[in-house]
Amino acid sequence: MKIRTTLKKGITLPSLIFIIGICMLSAIFPQLTENLLNVVKNFIFVNLNWVYVWSVTLFVIFLVYIMASKYGNIRLGRNDSKPDYNFFSWLSMLFAAGMGIGLMYFSVAEPMQHYSNEVFAYKTPVQRAQNAQLYTFFHWGIHAWAIYGVVGLALAYFSYRYRLPLSLRSCFYPLLKDKIKGGWGNVIDIFALCSTFFGITTTLGFGVVQINSGLVTLNILPENAFVYQVLIVAVLVSLAILSAVTGLDKGVKILSNINIIAVVILLLFVLAVGPTVYLIGSFTEGIGTYINSFFSLTFNTHVYEDNTQKWFYDWTILYWAWWISWSPYVGLFIARISKGRTIREFVAAVLILPTLFNFIWMSVFGNSAIWLDMNAAHGYLSEMANDPDSLMFQFLEYLPFTKLASFLVIAIILIFFVTSADSGIFVMNSIATKNARVSPRWQTIGWGTLLAVLALMLLNAGGLKALQSMTLITALPFSIIMMLFIVSLAKALVIDKNYYEKDFASTTVPWSGEHWKERLKQIISFNDSASTELYIKTTVQQAFEELVSEFAINGVDAKVNADNSPQSMEIEIRYDLVNNFIYGVKAESKIIAEYLLTEENLPSAEDQVIYYPRSYFGDNREGYDVKLFTKNELISDVLKHYERFIEIIGEQKNTIFVSSDANHRFK
Prior knowledge:
Layout: H1 9-28, H2 30-47, H3 49-68, H4 87-98, H5 101-106, H6 109-116, H7 125-140, H8 142-160, H9 173-176, H10 183-217, H11 226-246, H12 248-273, H13 276-292, H14 294-299, H15 306-336, H16 343-351, H17 353-375, H18 380-383, H19 388-396, H20 402-432, H21 441-461, H22 464-473, H23 475-501, H24 516-523, H25 529-553, E1 558-564, E2 567-573, E3 581-591, E4 609-617, H26 631-649, H27 655-658
Antiparallel strand pairs: 1-2, 2-3, 3-4
Subcellular location: Cell membrane
Transmembrane segments: 12-32, 44-66, 87-108, 142-162, 183-206, 226-248, 260-280, 317-335, 347-372, 404-432, 444-464, 470-494
GO molecular function: transmembrane transporter activity
């Protein structure tokens, strides 16, 4: 029997060969592979760290500009489309996909590691605590979400606005046009699939270790052993596959909603039983410090600080690389759930709300741990800072209801594990099938099984760090790709805005409907160079000459200027104190869409380059196509602009615009 599949061979086969090949190398030769990849990674971090700094900065600036600009009102979909999910469910899903396990893994570990790092040993404990909060905010704040936001926005826009497949290749449409359907498009999707797989595999591998550590702390499991990790992965990946099979509207949505509620409960618990006043005060001060330091943090490369450069590579640059390497997966998932949102709503939600929650979360857990370390633990948590797998549970030992809180933490990690895995399975299948609407269930099971098998194989062989290095290396080329996303998106947004705001042609203003048959013939035909020049030499010239004669009768000295290369003609009225009045018409060309050459039911053209008569003015205002004007309509249009000119020069406030400086060329 022929197995039904929606997988695209040009994407799936090369991706699987590369994924399995790298994983096998990392498992069979873990130390050698890790050393080789670390050499490449360290070279990039040391010599090309500025690429990450500038690209992430550009992402933030671009999104803030788009959010505040006129393009913010553009909807991700048809103009009348509505969001598929309510705001709470939407925010829950993008948050679960965007941070997930990492939020639980680093909420205590990162602030404690900054606080206890020897690089900052010269600072006082209070200064080290402030410093730890600031850098944690920096690494988990707007910059991280801007990376996800750029990819998610580009994908959602081109998928729902241009009606292209929900695929990274679609983001290049304004630059590559139909070439995205061929080899170039496959290369982009292969890169996205491999990057997504590597990122999810390493994260799930580290997540399993933390779950195992928590279960040992609670005396549910006797030790951290591979056999227990196999059992954990088998159960959780099975749940993830079940969730993925049920679809986004059920599995992922329900689990994300449950988890965000559980996360808020845990947050409020720690806030209530911890040093509450200290936490609220430190959060308030931390926000102010972050805002005041935003630009210095953004552009700081520590090039003048030899003692902190290695820390900078190991933390800031590693984080930027990690977020970038995760952005194809997270961006695809965010785009999938964001149909119907406006660009302003999308960017504001993606940049501000998760960032604010991250700040609250990191302040409550990180600052609680630091406060306890200074006042109750007597440095014990600092000593445990390099053991992030168990640090969260060690921290909870100093709070009341330790067992209950630990159970809640494990439950949250478990759900984050499942939501990360099932959304990852969905995204990988979407990339491999070019966003097929319906796929057979065996594909979903297959991706989940491959994730579990390779994650366990690497975990057992000690190859997860090698795969992590590979993931970070892929971030460099993808940061360049993301900058091209911005170019492509900016180009598309300008076209989009012009398309929907384009008004009726200026020639429709004076037209009463008389001679409509002749007008129709003109509308459905394109002019060549000869017919355009003929229009200027006959209709335009006759209109201008009649105007010159009538101006003379009324005591106004006007003249007609003609230039045959390129063909143009203008009527001019000269002045000494103010700018001359000029209304001209010149022949211009433009390139039309190729389909107009073959489509029978559209205006026909013999060549892709067509010509038309375009008006221009002495003050360099934008002109327009006047080919449909009759002689009298053209006269009317000139007088309309002349009346405007007289009104403008008569107002004192416009003196700076109407001075005679521009007339020196006629002296």
